[in-house]
Amino acid sequence: MSDKDITLALKEREVLGKGLAKLRNEGLVPAVIHDHGKPSIHVMGEYGPIAKVFASAGKHHPVELTIGSKKNTVIIKDVHFDPVKHLVQHVVFQAIRQDETVETEVPVSFIGEVPAEKAGLLVITHLSHVDAEALPKDLPDKIELNMESLVEIGDKLTVADLTIPTGVTILTEPETLIVSVEETKAQLSEESTEEEATTEEGAAPKESTSEESASW
User: Fold this and answer.
1) What CATH code is assigned to 7-96?
2) Domain 7-96 shares a fold with domain 104-199
3) What gap in Å lies between CA 31 and CA 92, rounded to an integer?
């Protein structure tokens, strides 16, 4: 985990259900805090600061919440977006303890030069995050994947190829595909054209039938 502290000030809210639309129209985002089986705490905050915190913390970096005189250390468990405007509509926070492991999503960071890209091949990303477990102090901001071994079509990297930081357990299955090298559409089209040309050149001439050779 990086040394930067991410903080956010929220207020408790009593508005629930249908009243949430009015809050959102006023530029506020409703949220909830879950805390180890205790009653959930309903809170709200201004859209700008909440969106900024999510951009910085993601679902992997602890956030120090201040609610009046109370403080909570949390991670973001879930974020709901408006399907049209793609704005944050609701946030679910999970309170965490420094002596208990946390399960969360950690982004994959791609490092190193990619020979396959330089060769004009297509490098496809299949997975951008992995599920991980660690103590809050050990939660990484990213997990690195070296791409230098991607050279030719068919090369691939899986979760097993990740560089795992000390104190972190990866929960995503090791064989899960992260990136692979494939042909571009142009290359596939070119190969298809070449195959068709080869087939036409190698085709045996059509024999005429007796009816075709007969003169009328």
Assistant:
1) 2.40.240.10
2) no
3) 6
Q: Does domain 104-199 have CATH number 2.170.120.20?
A: yes
Q: How far apart are CA 158 and CA 179, in angstroms?
A: 7
Spell out the domain ranges in the chain: 7-96, 104-199
Per-residue pLDDT tens digits of the chain, which is 216 residues long:
555 789 999 999 988 888 898 889 999 999 999 998 889 999 999 999 999 999 999 999 999 999 989 999 999 999 999 999 889 999 999 999 999 999 999 999 999 999 999 999 999 999 999 999 999 999 999 999 999 999 999 999 999 999 999 999 999 999 999 999 998 866 556 655 555 555 555 555 555 444 444 433
| Predicted model pTM | 0.76
Q: What is the enclosing helix (H) or strand (E) of 31?
A: strand 28-35
How far apart are alpha carbons 78 and 8 in whole angstroms? 16
Residue 68, both tokens: 């009046």
In whole angstroms, what is the distance from residue 7 CA to residue 72 CA? 10
